[in-house]
Amino acid sequence: MRFVIIGAGRVGLRTARVLREEGHDIVLVELDRDRVKRAREAEFEVVEGDGSREEVLVDAGIEAADALGALTADLNVNFAACMIGKHFGCRTVLRVDEDYREEVYQKYAKEVDVIVYPERLGAIGAKNALLGGSIRAIADIAQHLQVILVTVTEESPMNGYSIEEVALPANARILAFGKRDGPMGIPLSDDSLETGDRVAVLADFDVLDDVRQLLVGDEVATAAGGA
């Protein structure tokens, strides 16, 4: 696939490296000359200019791109780039910072395909490293919703029960299930939970502790509380 990434700073350049490692074609758009130089030294194709301007994005090949990632620290630039990308039929990804909070997420949520918050994603990784154990946050879906990956322990009250018998709180849903060392898939009602199995759950923050206690057990849930 071909991607246009606006911004060759910390977030943009790291994203470009990951995509390139997976074999995709990347074009970076950057206004700052030092960042342009750094990106070119890293052997990226770079268009020097303002990513919020259509002519610059056309120079970057937006007409042939599959997706556009607006990943600068400037929300106005990011939003303008996404609007241009939409005009050319691209999938668009808008970066916002945590400081903008919920009202900004809601304001732009319908105008782009995906909104990302690098600081929040970084916080999830740090939290997982600190907690360890049988619970791992995958993503924050909204201010009040999180997807977690839970590994069933011997202490789990649901160990030995089927998926159908797991009575999660009202504000929680099982999204995927995988046996120990097996692939994750759509959960079936007669899948049985055993030690080492993994369950992906979408849950409201208010019921995360209840989900942990049900699928992991009292001792581990207490240690992981407050995540």
TrEMBL record:
Presence of the UniProt keyword Hydrolase in the record: no
InterPro entries on file: K_uptake_TrkA (IPR006036), NAD(P)-bd_dom_sf (IPR036291), RCK_C (IPR006037), RCK_C_sf (IPR036721), RCK_N (IPR003148), Trk_Ktr_HKT_K-transport (IPR050721)
Protein keywords: Ion transport, NAD, Potassium, Potassium transport, Transport
Gene3D superfamilies documented for this protein: NAD(P)-binding Rossmann-like Domain (3.40.50.720), Regulator of K+ conductance, C-terminal domain (3.30.70.1450)
Keyword Transport: yes
Residues covered by the RCK C-terminal domain: 135-217
Source taxon at top rank: Archaea
Gene Ontology MF: a single term: potassium ion transmembrane transporter activity
SUPFAM superfamilies: NAD(P)-binding Rossmann-fold domains (SSF51735), TrkA C-terminal domain-like (SSF116726)
Entry protein name: Trk system potassium uptake protein TrkA
Biological source species: Haloferax massiliensis
GN (gene name): trkA_1
